[in-house]
From TrEMBL:
<feature type="binding site">
    <location>
        <position position="268"/>
    </location>
    <ligand>
        <name>Zn(2+) 1</name>
    </ligand>
</feature>
<feature type="binding site">
    <location>
        <position position="346"/>
    </location>
    <ligand>
        <name>Zn(2+) 1</name>
    </ligand>
</feature>
<dbReference type="Pfam" id="PF00173">
    <property type="entry name" value="Cyt-b5"/>
</dbReference>
<comment type="similarity">
    <text>Belongs to the sterol desaturase family. SCS7 subfamily.</text>
</comment>
<keyword id="KW-0444">Lipid biosynthesis</keyword>
<keyword id="KW-0812">Transmembrane</keyword>
<keyword id="KW-0349">Heme</keyword>
<keyword id="KW-0472">Membrane</keyword>
<feature type="binding site">
    <location>
        <position position="326"/>
    </location>
    <ligand>
        <name>Zn(2+) 2</name>
    </ligand>
</feature>
<feature type="binding site">
    <location>
        <position position="246"/>
    </location>
    <ligand>
        <name>Zn(2+) 1</name>
    </ligand>
</feature>
<dbReference type="GO" id="GO:0080132">
    <property type="term" value="F:fatty acid 2-hydroxylase activity"/>
</dbReference>
<feature type="binding site">
    <location>
        <position position="241"/>
    </location>
    <ligand>
        <name>Zn(2+) 1</name>
    </ligand>
</feature>
<comment type="function">
    <text>FA2H is stereospecific for the production of (R)-2-hydroxy fatty acids. Plays an essential role in the synthesis of galactosphingolipids of the myelin sheath. Responsible for the synthesis of sphingolipids and glycosphingolipids involved in the formation of epidermal lamellar bodies critical for skin permeability barrier.</text>
</comment>
<feature type="transmembrane region" description="Helical">
    <location>
        <begin position="307"/>
        <end position="325"/>
    </location>
</feature>
<comment type="pathway">
    <text>Sphingolipid metabolism; galactosylceramide biosynthesis.</text>
</comment>
<feature type="binding site">
    <location>
        <position position="267"/>
    </location>
    <ligand>
        <name>Zn(2+) 1</name>
    </ligand>
</feature>
<keyword id="KW-0443">Lipid metabolism</keyword>
Length: 375
């Protein structure tokens, strides 16, 4: 199925007056030339905030698409086509609008099956030649066969849910509501913070520089160790995102392609799938446990655990910010507003740069900063 209406399908025409009526959060239409788009479902996702679109609803946004201040990428334009609903008839008049709609529009009364098919079409393929999978079947076992076409395909985002596995149990374990992350991890952060402070208060935790020289780790140093743990997490976050999530699996390796898609590729293919924007606690526990064991083996208990709990808190903040960057509407000019625009550019235009999520700090020394657009 194609995203755009096929030539054989009945083409819908709308008068300018009819398009102008759809100027609310509940029904927002815009124009690109004579093409009409229903972007109601995209308002919350728009990186510039929904207000920018609402101020231009019912009007031609061609100048805004080309910029300045921002020239939209090819992926953004391809994404836009998912919301195409028909054409503008400039020849229509207020008096003959009703006749025009009756003559050229699809009838208002449609069956439930037709409505479902229409919804699938709106969120389906952008380009039939590059969309090489069967969306009616789980994708996990299909993507490995894409070979050298996988990298291009996975970085052409679509606005539709993805099913990874046929088995309902496995599928359910790949989805997580955002609030589960703080529910699961914050009690552990609070408990370990109290535990570390009381342990350091006993004044028995010493960091040995040499076999003969050591430094007492005082309880008042706990907040600084905690903050350093959060800072250390930001570096780990950058490294995981860049070197693991954005590895380029060999085109001939079926299993590495599948692994990449399960870890991160599915997020780039469907970036606004709200059920897969945070890491499932069951899988995160494996990584969290590994970091805890490493720190406990290499550092004194009080120091290692204090670093760990700071890093764990950093992870929770990371997951929450990541979810907000996709679904939140930060105030223009705020720190999160800049992060949201930066992260959306990573998804739609610069997939090999902009790996920082909670901060862009590490992109600078590693030369992966997303360049500013110039006109």
């Amino acid at each position: 199925m194609k995203n755009k209406m096929s030539p054989s399908a009945s083409l819908r025409f709308f008068s300018e007056k009819e398009v102008a009526k759809h100027c609310t959060k509940d029904s927002c239409w815009v124009l690109l030339g004579t093409r009409v788009y229903d972007v109601t479902g995209f308002l919350r996702m728009h990186p510039g905030g929904e207000a920018l679109i609402l101020r231009r609803c019912g009007r031609d946004i061609s100048r805004e698409i080309e910029g300045p201040p921002h020239r939209h990428s090819e992926n953004a334009r391809r994404w836009m086509e998912q919301y195409y609903i028909g054409e503008l008839d400039r020849d229509s008049t207020h008096e003959d609008t009703g006749t025009l709609r009756q003559r050229k529009k699809i009838p208002e009364s449609t069956t439930e099956e037709e409505e479902e098919t229409s919804a699938i079409n709106k969120c389906s393929k952008v380009d039939e030649e590059t969309d090489l999978v069967d969306w009616r079947k789980p994708l996990a076992w299909q993507v490995g066969y894409l070979g050298e076409k996988y990298d291009t395909w996975v970085h052409q985002p679509v606005d539709r849910p993805i099913r990874l596995f046929e088995n309902d149990f496995f599928e359910a374990n790949t989805k997580t509501s955002w609030y589960m992350v703080p529910i699961v991890w914050m009690p552990l952060v609070i408990f370990l913070s109290w535990y570390c402070y009381t342990l350091l208060a006993q004044e028995r935790t010493r960091l040995f520089i040499t076999s003969d020289y050591s430094i007492l780790v005082h309880k008042y140093s706990f907040p600084f160790i905690f903050m350093f743990g959060m800072f250390l997490w930001s570096f780990i976050e950058y490294c995981i995102h860049r070197f693991v999530f954005h590895m380029r699996p060999p085109a001939h390796n079926y299993y590495l392609i599948m692994l990449h898609f399960l870890l991160h590729g599915q997020h780039h293919k469907s970036p606004f799938d709200g059920s897969r924007l945070v890491f499932p606690p069951s899988l995160a526990a494996i990584v969290v446990g590994a970091f805890y064991l490493i720190l406990r083996q290499t550092l004194p208990e009080g120091l290692g655990t204090s670093l760990f709990v700071g890093g764990l808190c950093g992870y929770v903040v990371y997951d929450m910010i990541h979810y907000y960057l996709h679904y939140g509407s930060p105030r223009k000019g705020s720190y999160l507003y800049g992060l949201k625009a930066y992260h959306v550019k990573h998804h739609f235009e610069h997939q090999r740069a902009g790996f920082g999520i909670t901060t862009t700090f590490w992109d600078y020394p590693f030369n992966t900063v997303i360049p500013e657009q110039t006109f």
